[in-house]
Specification:
292 residues; mainly alpha; globular
């Protein structure tokens, strides 16, 4: 229990540092802000983070909305998604950290692994050209759609649930390696929620243990990538500002309304169809992108 509070405090402090970095950079480039897009972006942030709190995920839906509303340049999407959702997702992690009494060592190690993956992934993605980014985003959306369908339908590991609340030895090593990879893939929009649930199920963990792991991991890993995206100037400041504010509102609303949560099955399938359509659009745009 003491370790959980230590982790929460660290997440709060790291999030405050990230918020400070984002705030300083936004003020420095305040002339770039387009307030006319503010209401739409605020609504997008509130919507996707509301359902993110209920387990739908925010990266893929937000990516889809960016594409259809044409509110963010494709090459800036990875960085914008990461920075815009850093604060809302960190709040989720803080709120859900004690959702289940998971072993502190298991939780801490998996959080560190996903954060390390995010640092590596963000450094690599900042160097990609527009065509590569579009292809990566398309692949990420397809992957999320497939995993989400499997999760919603209860296929494979999603149809099972263990009873363990701790991992040791070989299982813990596997968890570290996979979480590192998921942390890196999260940066291109692959998403961590559904794969993390599958990982927990395959390793025999109680499925509820996935909640503090996946939300805590996202909270830490997104903070870990903030510096790289700001340093490389790889995010849209207008999108970031209003989605961050709207997303924070969405998380708080969802947290207090979670007891009224309805069945998300149909919504999940609809979102998957839209993800695939958006992925096709990214692939088509990538095909027509001039080679640099």
């Amino acid at each position: 229990m003491v370790m959980l509070w230590v982790i929460r405090i660290l997440l709060v402090l790291w999030t405050l540092v990230s918020f400070g970095m984002i705030l300083v950079d936004t003020v420095k480039h305040r002339d770039e802000l387009d307030f006319k897009k503010g209401p739409l972006l605020f609504f997008i942030g509130m919507l996707v983070d509301f359902f993110d709190t209920w387990g739908i995920g925010c990266y893929a839906p937000n990516m889809t909305l960016f594409k259809f509303t044409n509110t963010c340049r494709d090459d800036l999407v990875p960085g914008t998604l990461n920075l815009a959702h850093t604060i809302p997702v960190a709040i989720e992690g803080i709120l859900f950290m004690n959702f289940v009494r998971i072993d502190s060592l298991t939780l801490a190690v998996m959080l560190v692994a996903s954060s390390a993956g995010a640092v590596v992934g963000s450094k690599i993605i900042c160097k990609w050209n527009l065509q590569v980014v579009r292809i990566a985003l398309g692949i990420g959306l397809i992957g999320v759609a497939v995993v989400t369908v499997a999760r919603t339908a209860g296929f494979g590991p999603f149809g099972t649930s263990g009873t363990e609340l701790a991992l040791r030895g070989g299982k813990l090593l596997i968890a570290v390696v996979v979480q590192f990879l998921l942390g890196a893939l999260m940066i291109i929009g692959f998403g961590l929620y559904s794969p993390c649930i599958a990982l927990c199920a395959l390793l025999g963990l109680n499925i509820t243990a996935a909640f503090p792991i996946m939300m805590g991991s996202c909270g830490f890993l997104m903070n870990a990538a903030v510096h790289n995206f700001i340093r490389e100037d790889k995010y849209d400041r207008t999108c970031n500002l209003f989605i961050m504010i709207g997303g924070t509102v969405g998380v708080v609303l969802a947290y207090f309304l979670i007891k009224y949560a309805f069945s998300l099955t149909v919504l999940s399938y609809i979102v998957c169809v839209v993800m695939v359509i958006t992925a096709v659009k990214y692939f088509m745009d990538a095909k027509n992108t001039p080679v640099e």
